Description:
Fumarate Reductase Iron-sulfur Protein, Chain B, domain 2; FAD/NAD(P)-binding domain; 3 domains; 5-stranded parallel beta sheet; globular; binds flavin-adenine dinucleotide; binds iron/sulfur cluster
Amino acid sequence: xxxxxxxxxxxxxxxxxxxxxxxxxxxxxxxxxxxxxxxxxxxxxxxxxxxxxxxxxxxxxxxxxxxxxxxxxxxxxxxxxxxxxxxxxxxxxxxxxxxxxxxxxxxxxxxxxxxxxxxxxxxxxxxxxxxxxxxxxxxxxxxxxxxxxxxxxxxxxxxxxxxxxxxxxxxxxxxxxxxxxxxxxxxxxxxxxxxxxxxxxxxxxxxxxxxxxxxxxxxxxxxxxxxxxxxxxxxxxxxxxxxxxxxxxxxxxxxxxxxxxxxxxxxxxxxxxxxxxxxxxxxxxxxxxxxxxxxxxxxxxxxxxxxxxxxxxxxxxxxxxxxxxxxxxxxxxxxxxxxxxxxxxxxxxxxxxxxxxxxxxxxxxxxxxxxxxxxxxxxxxxxxxxxxxxxxxxxxxxxxxxxxxxxxxxxxxxxxxxxxxxxxxxxxxxxxxxxxxxxxxxxxxxxxxxxxxxxxxxxxxxxxxxxxxxxxxxxx
Length: 476
Ligand code: FAD
Ligand code: SF4
């Protein structure tokens, strides 16, 4: 697409990348999103930095293969409605991915400008703006199937994978029921990811759109306890398992016992409930005035440290056993945390929890170092002799990652992998049980929202093909 931008074809030379964030001292005062909503003029200028380079590395690096150059070009020309049409063709939640994708590792990391030292186009921010503008202007079409197909699909899990599948399946005319054990839909969009990255109203309007389109949500329903998979298979023509991964990896160290630490998700859920307007007087899960140590180096750890800062902790330290270059969390989130006052203790591995008068008082850690690099191998970490140190802590949060729960244990015939994720056919989503499909973290292990959306959309297409075949066979 030929692109006219306010800054001209070499706009990136005169217009630097700008992604305005609230000042750290201001943003730590509340749980509002830290990215300042850009003006239309700013979006036009930033989108106009795209050179339409002809080899869309950004698109290739996007798990949804979003048609980024086209919607950037249209945004630069203030053709927002058309930009929305293109953005929503490949994604069921552009305004959500635009906010929370680790763009530095995906589209923006591959942007030609980034590769050539000019700083990437702010792709995520433009995408979020397009989505928000569409909602604000009523361009987001309700789901109105052309005809009802008379078949139903049950979805286990109302996270992004389940929601994306529900969207596409309902659009095709299937009756869709989504079962979730939580009291609200959204999965980790609602109860994991904090409001300063993704405002709860942004998730809610997606849920509302599904409900308006006829998708039914059955909350407080734990599949495996309140209803069995066998019962869902009886009731529906197909079932999609999209229940994520929720078994927190636990810290194994002397001094760790009941009540000595807080699991990351438990901590985040309490704050997310407050953000959703619930009264929560629980002080055990609140960091105000406490010395907090968060153990772990992934995005969940980053969400915990930044939540603790906003709650008014006396100090917040992130303890991670490797160094900055080797941490799994997004570099962008680490930078945000540092700006907000989080201290990073790199190359420190928890060794024991110390307590005084029955309460946790410190984390004892071993100083680590990285082994010599070896071709094709991740560098090991080894303890430095005599390098132990103590971090004062009266609140220790474990953010060591998640494993799948033993869902399959309740469902004998469902095959799982050696990692307990649901086993699916190569290149698809079919499980070992006929008519049962699986998608998102439940299959991949802990991953990203954008991959869950991709899986949900693709699984819906596979379920649609399966159900159409069933209908044809029944008619034959
Ligand atoms: P989930 O979102 O986990 O949804 C699964 C749903 O299934 C849940 O609602 C759960 O209640 C329900 N469920 C589970 N078991 C059952 C059962 N037996 N019966 C009924 N319901 C059940 N990714 C990003 O891209 N960007 C980020 O910034 C980011 N931040 C994150 C922060 C945190 C704290 C965490 C934990 C993860 C983060 N992720 C992020 C990862 C991302 O949230 C997940 O990859 C994504 O949500 C997976 O989607 P899903 O639909 O597969 O599962
Ligand atoms: Fe980038 Fe994520 Fe949007 Fe794809 S979905 S364009 S990776 S922000």
